[in-house]
């Protein structure tokens, strides 16, 4: 059972997710009355939400508590890490909505990625990933059906990598990713809570297991208004070891640039 503070946090986060970046939630007094709590209890919860980047305070006659979104950074060049892990590491409550699952024949691009034939089958899982209840990405993951019997009978709402390691002994060892900008279709926009044709960041990934075999082919669509690709490159001169890195982050939205 949730504590009063946790219940208050959930109610405020629900209102944040129902609003838009830059919108005013209210003053401390207004919010204390709305949620039926003391201002001291409210301040503790607001302080945690402000530290997490979900809200910010503005001082003055027109001030109050305003909605904002913090950056959530994910490395795309180091260890293979699932969405729940990098969200949890940065203080977000990770969530998942399973949209559809099926066993189907692979398209040519999937056959090539997973090194399977036209007569083989793949297990396909489509999910929406959430950060504190707000949609951040839409993913379509495909796995070779022969390698993972009974996959659709497993729990698919959490980290698929953790489940694959626990149930099948598979360890995601490395991944190859291609990143490009695309526009949201009406169906994708509806699932992500954005406008049709809004900008999305498409990450197409082939994941390899500890034996060097491809085990996953996925297409992740991250909201363009929440996502930033960052790349860091060190020098390649004499005596300097190469250490290129790249990351994807959910970025803070400004009032004048909000898209949904």
Automatic annotation (TrEMBL):
- Which UniProt keywords are listed? DNA-binding, Transcription, Transcription regulation
Q: Which residues cross the membrane?
A: none
Name its GO BP terms in alphabetical order.
negative regulation of DNA-templated transcription
Q: Where is the HTH gntR-type domain?
A: 1-70
Q: What GO MF terms are annotated?
A: DNA binding; DNA-binding transcription factor activity
CDD domains assigned: WHTH_GntR
Keyword Disulfide bond present in the record's keywords: the answer is: no
A Pfam match:
GntR
Q: Does the keyword Iron apply?
A: no
What is the protein's given name? Answer: GntR family transcriptional regulator
The top of its lineage is: Bacteria, Bacillati, Actinomycetota, Actinomycetes, Mycobacteriales
């Amino acid at each position: 059972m949730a504590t009063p503070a946790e219940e208050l946090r959930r109610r405020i986060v629900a209102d944040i997710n129902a609003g838009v970046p830059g919108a005013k939630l209210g003053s401390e007094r207004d919010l204390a009355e709305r949620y039926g709590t003391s201002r001291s209890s409210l301040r503790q919860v607001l302080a945690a939400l402000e530290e997490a980047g979900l809200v910010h305070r503005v001082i003055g006659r027109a001030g109050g508590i305003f909605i904002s979104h913090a950056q959530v950074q994910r490395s795309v060049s180091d260890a293979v890490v699932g969405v729940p892990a990098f969200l949890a590491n940065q203080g977000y409550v990770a969530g998942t909505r399973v949209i559809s699952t099926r066993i189907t024949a692979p398209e040519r691009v999937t056959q090539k990625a997973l090194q399977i034939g036209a007569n083989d089958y793949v297990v396909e899982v489509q999910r929406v990933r959430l950060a504190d209840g707000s949609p951040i990405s839409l993913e379509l993951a495909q796995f070779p059906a022969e390698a993972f019997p009974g996959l659709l009978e497993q729990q698919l709402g959490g980290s698929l990598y953790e489940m694959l390691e626990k149930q099948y002994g598979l360890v995601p060892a490395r991944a190859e990713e291609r990143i490009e900008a695309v526009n949201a279709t009406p169906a994708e926009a509806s699932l992500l809570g954005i406008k049709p044709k809004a900008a999305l960041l498409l990450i197409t990934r082939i994941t390899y297991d500890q034996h060097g075999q491809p085990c996953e082919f996925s297409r992740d669509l991250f909201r363009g208004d929440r996502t930033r690709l960052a790349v860091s490159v060190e020098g390649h001169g004499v005596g300097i070891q190469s250490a290129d890195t790249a990351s994807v982050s959910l970025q803070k939205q400004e009032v004048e640039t909000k898209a949904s």
